[in-house]
Write a structure and sequence with these properties.
With 239 residues, this protein is α/β, with parallel strands linked by helices. It has 8 helices and 10 strands.
Length: 239
Amino acid sequence: IVDEVLTHNYDGIDIDYEGLDVTLRASYSAFIRDLGAALRQHDKLLTVAVHAKASDYGGLGGFQDWAEIGQHVDQLRIMTYDYHWRGSGPGPVAPSYWIEAVTAYARSVVDPRKVLLGVHFYGYDWPPSGQATARPWRIIEEIINREKATVNFMERNSSGPVQESYFTYRSAQGRREVWFMTETGLASKIQTVQDRDLAGIAIWQLGYEQPEYWRVVRERMVNDPTLVQRALNEFLPDH
């Protein structure tokens, strides 16, 4: 991996291993520790994508020891999406109450200056049965216009704040249900980043977004002065 980074002069590498068995927890931690040390010898970065969880062994992320690997990475990128996923029933993809729980746990075990909140730019379109299809905004908008669908906004449910939009429409397969993030939901996620003093957001995936998302990012994201200074350092004269 280090050879690959050096050969192509990458800034570093992002490790995204998913769904490993919890019995591999110690081995995974050792891998991240060793890789981080090897990359730092060359001033290269290590970022790691992790399953969202609100407790150490929660969800699919039991094999990822955040407290341990957080010491050896430059960024911990939490995949805070797919609360409802392709294989589940329809529902919000990343409800706000879940985001709050995950980021509260992350901040308790990892330096918040390393934590990036994952933001989904896609929506899910669920059929009457079977797996959902991930949709970019342009397709969701086409469906809304074609079907003259009424878009609803869920502010909250019995679990707490949600802040996502949804609608239903008829198809040859029957009634379908679509959930997607709104500008309001994105603003809420960015506010969580600010409130918990996290490093920023990580987006999945570019090209799927509503154009308005970028306005929200520009207006709501507050630049981290440490990161700004680091970016400027290489252009400043020596003192």
